[in-house]
Design goal:
Elements lengths: L3 E5 L3 H13 L3 E5 L2 H11 L3 E4 L8 H9 L9 E5 L6 H7 L4 E4 L4 H9 L14
Parallel strand pairs: 1-2, 1-3, 3-4, 4-5
């Protein structure tokens, strides 16, 4: 079974970049363009990992984290913030909100997958070079 990663990102260019990188490493990418759609997708698909932008209209990444951590089925799914928000105190707020990790934008393609794979159980990692 292919590892499923849900990407919740409101900017189409960023969503496309993350999809291309993850698919090149053999992951199945589920995509959502806002927090509400991301939660719905997470509840339906039960992904192996969720990558979530923090700053989105409507339900932001912090709200997504609260909902996922409060859901009995999803609460153990690894949740990683992917954001350009790097102001003082943000990293602590990210962890306090229930995220397991924090990756800053801009994304460095070669480093990105190894960064996120540390949140996946070893048997779900592809750990291969892009195809």
């Amino acid at each position: 079974m292919t590892t499923q990663i849900l990407v919740i990102e409101d900017l189409p260019a960023n969503l496309k970049l993350l999809r291309v990188i993850l698919e090149a490493f053999g992951y199945k990418v589920l995509a959502a363009e806002d927090g509400y759609a991301g939660l719905q997708t997470a509840r339906e698909a039960r992904p192996d990992l969720v990558l979530c932008d923090l700053l989105m209209d409507g339900l932001d990444g912090f709200g997504v984290a609260r909902e996922i951590r409060g859901d009995t089925i999803l609460k153990r799914v690894p949740l990683v913030a992917v954001t350009a928000l790097v102001t003082d105190g943000v990293e602590q707020k990210v962890f306090d909100s229930g995220f397991d990790g924090y990756i800053t934008k801009p994304i460095e393609a070669r480093k990105f997958v190894p960064q996120l794979e540390k949140f996946l159980p070893e048997n779900l990692r592809t750990s291969t070079l892009p195809h």
